[in-house]
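Researcher: We're teaching a course module on how sequence relates to structure. For the next exercise, students receive a sequence and then see the predicted structure as tokens, so they can try to spot secondary structure elements on their own. Here is the exercise chain.
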Amino acid sequence: MIWEALGSVLLGLALSWTAAHRLSDRLPARRTVLVTGPVGALFGAFLTHSAIDPGSAAGVIATLLGAAAVAVVLLSLLLRPAGGRLRRSAA
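Model: And here is the predicted structure for the students to work with:
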């Protein structure tokens, strides 16, 4: 379990670093992005590990895939629109 947690944190850090590097103009502060990735990956690993059989080798791969999925979802929630302006309705 400790290796899954360490692997998921490293995976989340790699994903957040890549997002911060490629989408720096559409994301908030770099520190926020670099913290969100590993935290999301760790939470995703916990959820996936709780849902599947942790004893099998496929369980480790599934745990890392779940960690990556949750990290990407949380990082995508930080994105702002490309135009720089938020569109608001008149209502």
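Model: If you want an answer key for the exercise: The mean pLDDT is 89. The radius of gyration is 15 Å.
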